[in-house]
Amino acid sequence: MANNFTDTIKNQGHLSLKEKLKIIIQLSIPTILSQISSILMQYIDAAMVGHLGPDASASIGIVSTSSWLLSGLCNAMATSFAVQVAQLIGAGKHQKARRTFKLALVISFLFSCLLLLISVMGNHSLLRWLGTDPSLFNNASAYFLVFTLSLPIVQINSLCNSMLQCCGNMKTPSILNASMCGLDVIYNLIFIQYFGVVGAAIGTLCAQLTVCLINLWYTTMHSPLLKFHKQETLTMDKETLKNAFHIGTPLAFEHIAICGAMIMSTKIIAPLGTIAIAAHSFAITAESLCYMPGYGLEAAATTLVGQSIGAQREDLAKSFSNLTIAFGAVIMGIIAILMFFISPYVFAMLTPDVATQQLATEVLRIELFAEPLYGVSIVASGALRGAGDTFIPSLLNLFSIWGVRLSLSVLFVQKMGLHGVWLAMCIELCVRGLLLLYRQQRGKWIHKAMS
Description:
The protein is an all-alpha fold. It has one domain (2-450). The chain has 16 helices and no strands. The chain has helices spanning 2-10, 17-50, 54-90, 94-129, 134-149, 151-166, 171-195, 197-221, 238-269, 274-310, 314-350, 354-367, 371-386, 391-416, 418-442, 444-450.
């Protein structure tokens, strides 16, 4: 399908609305299934650790936002090269796409090793700054340490998945991520019974490593568009590195801004006690089920817009961005309605603690009203990213999460506790969606990418 789509846009072929919808569905469904497997892995970890008690869940919750920050930086590095590969494939420059991938492997691996070193050195300082309760400190520190050791694995997996997706191959990453979910269950059963909270991190690391080796082998040896050719040597292409810097740097700062704000939110929540921290962590895990279609459509939007731009098809770039954004809003809205009613049962599955269940249900229901516009923000970011437009969207995200969410969180938490933090999140997600929709609808990003 990916090659047919590439051939169609290169040959200036006409695509009807039905054909466009078919392409979007074919590209997004495997990635959505991949997201489901990833979310299930989070649910499995949360449920297995949750039955160890609120303190165990809080130990992971206190470092979860810091973990997302590091994962997000790895994803930003992968995206900075993957967007270029999508545009090169759309332009029919397959050899240069392969060389870009080869260079990306080297640069991204070195980057992840640097993150690993910084994280290991700052482990205890971070936990003290977050105000971690002494009873949680050892478990939280050990869990975070194991996670940081997995960063090079996370980076290579993210890069290979992004590269395959930008080639239009959504199926392989989906199968591998589903396999990772199954492996995570097996490894967790082995390690949690011996190591408790830290066992969950070890189990996830082992699952990621297994899939990473398969992913790297497939992408470099068997992918029709990306597999290495002996005659194509590694070259330090300055233009590729420059483009990666211009695309990836705003994304990196965006993730730093978003996750930094989440870390600040954790610091705001920490004084509320163990139950609040655990409920916050479980609510975030449950909410991930709502936005998984958004990230599936985001990947499809990046691929479709990137290849359309590479083939000089401005009409398709605009049309695909509009359709994927609309899909994201509708689907996430429907899932939010379902989650509103089933959330008590979800939290009963994740933790036996009744107080945690009740608080998590209450705060999640507040945020669910923002899911349609959250879907708009996710997919619009993917569409803009496909055209290499990352700087202005990053500034919009920065303003939204720091100017709106954190300010309101500090204001509301005094009187409303954890409910106030989630109300601030709801308002901010709506603001973010409207800002990114305005940016996407103006259309200047397409003209700039085509020039």
